[in-house]
Amino acid sequence: MVRVVIRLFIIIFGLIDVLYILWVLVNDIINHKIPFYSTLVESLKVGDSYSNGSILFSFLSIFSFFLIISICFSGPLLIMKKKAGIYMSFFQFPFRVITFIPPTFFFVSPLLFTLFESITLSLIIILAFEVLKFYIEINWLKSLRKSRECG
């Protein structure tokens, strides 16, 4: 029963990633932009104007771009319950938290910021959801290993 629930969560995480990518694509197309590329260019311009040419903001913009591209792959892999999707998700974890890339920020933040006036509390809850996701993914990998050892 627990394995079934964990597998369901893995699929849900993949669906959320796919929905996020679709949202980005549709948003860019509606605004007559080249999906993903236009966002990167705009981010680099904003970073340059606010950071006085600091390479740190440019690095974060480029890294966020590659993170979003990697989500294009991890989402479908998670839906198919492939270990590669989990490993990509592990790699993405710290950068999702730093850059507030979904799943949790995208779907939970509007609700949290409405319910709690404290931005700090909302961010702590978002971080807790990301940690929970990470924990569920680790448990799924452990259950796969146990099923291979027993079967």
From TrEMBL:
Question: Which UniProt keywords are given for this protein, alphabetically ordered?
Answer: Membrane, Transmembrane, Transmembrane helix
Answer whether the UniProt record assigns the keyword Transmembrane helix to this protein.
yes
Q: Where are the transmembrane segments?
A: 5-26, 55-79, 91-113, 119-136
Which protein are we looking at? Uncharacterized protein
What organism is the protein native to? hydrothermal vent metagenome
The major lineage groups are: unclassified sequences, metagenomes, ecological metagenomes
